[in-house]
TrEMBL record, chain A:
Residues 275-392 form the Thiolase C-terminal domain. CDD domains: SCP-x_thiolase (cd00829). Residues 5-111 form the Thiolase N-terminal domain. SUPFAM superfamilies: Thiolase-like. Pfam families: Thiolase_C_1, Thiolase_N. The lineage of its organism: Bacteria, Bacillati, Actinomycetota, Actinomycetes, Kitasatosporales. One of its GO terms (molecular function) is acyltransferase activity, transferring groups other than amino-acyl groups. This is Lipid-transfer protein. It comes from Streptomyces yokosukanensis.
UniProtKB/TrEMBL annotation, chain B:
Signal peptide: none annotated. PANTHER family: BLR3430 PROTEIN. InterPro entries: ChsH2_Znr, NA-bd_OB-fold, Thioester_dehydratase-like. Pfam families: zf-ChsH2. Residues 21-43 form the ChsH2 rubredoxin-like zinc ribbon domain. This is Benzoylsuccinyl-CoA thiolase.
Amino acid sequence: MTRDVAVLGAGMHPWGKWGRSFVEYGTVAARAALADAGLDWRDIGSIVGADTVRAGYPGHVAGATFAKALGWQGARVASVYAACASGAQAIATARAQILAGLADVVLVVGADAAPKGFFRPVGGERPDDPDWLRFRVLGATNPTYFGLYARRRMAVHGDTPEDFALVKVKNAAMGALNPNARYRGRVTAEEVAASAVVADPLRLLDICATSDGGAALVLSSTDFARRRGVTRPVRIRAVSTVTPRFPNTVLDLPDIATDSSVAVQPADETFRASIARAAYEEAGIGPQELSLAEVYDLSTALELQWYEDLGLCGEGEGAKLLREGATGPGGRIPVNASGGLASFGEAVPAQAIAQVCELTWQLRGTAGERQVAGARVGISANQGLFGHGSSVVAVR
Amino acid sequence: MSRTRTPAVDGWFTGGGDGFRLLGTRCSSCATVFFPREDVHCRNPCCVGGSLMETPLSRKGRIWSYTDSRYRPPSPYVSNPELPWEPYALIAVELAAERIVVLGQTTPKITVADLAVGMEVEVVPGVLHEDAETTWTTWHWRPTGVRA
């Protein structure tokens, strides 16, 4: 029995700073995905929304808000929140419904309207919330965690700020070819080096912006796709939504300390590596079979970390892989052919869905100027605040 | 008028001067240490569960990594918007005995140029901010050998 689900449609609202409601972005993306699938909204049996938290209730409770905006038609609804991994959890929910036979065709939507500047926790006096505490007691913004990881790589692996800048140069060049990206200009290493330091050693152009945007997918059973005459759809073969294992020894957002490993020996692999491994195991493929990867480059340095966590190279070899051009256009394993977060900025609940939109277009061979030649297998990877893994394997 | 000294977070540190220590808890069954403190259940999934006893953490550790905050963090971090922003450094410190990494601000005037991964640091009492009535206290990391 196949465990695959078909991707019938993919759609986006372009990323930017549009200053409008996330509902509008999500609805535009949903309509685009439905049009791409050649389906009417009234054909959809279930809708899953990925929530934003910046709009009273979790995104007005996202799935229902999008269903209402598209016109109530009685579809089953679910809404999920897993911070940056919300989109992957929405995809996982849709997939589970399809594989369980609860729905033939499911619409997945995520959209956000992000504030300017640093993300911050919701207000009030909430000392029981680790996310509130790290801001209150340490002023530890997200970029300071990215700075810690980058400095650690420099000390342990010998990465340099010039290596980090090359990630931005690569992703900006790819994003320049993507009409849905927010930043469409090429960037030079000199421009990265001349941008202001935000969290040493990272500069403004090393760190992803916060954006408005929306992304949607229409997923179905492979039987439904076949009945629709779609004989060779892009298929989602694995969705990893794992949590860390105790003791988690990498300082993750929003934590002030790691787990102690005084009583239990930590696993050989980090949480991030376990996210990818779970996806590979479920898909029955390995990193050597990948045509491309979309990873969560919240910072340039973090993209290099993902190379290693995905097994694209050995530990500490990420910068070397980049410098060899393996992850650039025409390379052995292009990473962030979409332009990545460097070109999009982060629209939190839309982002993991957007990664799968890019995999879909690449695997169909319809990615235009940024097409990865002969793409057959793609992986996305991301990690959400509070211990949410997210990785999707798509094949064609 | 003298201000009251109040911890920015209850129960996370104690003492003054050389006696200042971070406070965690230790499971009586598996000996895992928790910081920030766990007071109800041990989070080791292999542990049958013991009682959690308050325990002071090691005073000294080594820098796992460090960074700084060049821009003013948003609320609930408290800073005076009328004063120019003074960046501060943040250090993640590995405590060998507890096998844990704990984040903290450095003492004022320490910058990233003064730091290196692997350098020894010690925990010292610090001030997070002051308002009309209260001095909100916290912990700071300081390279050993540096005074004041």
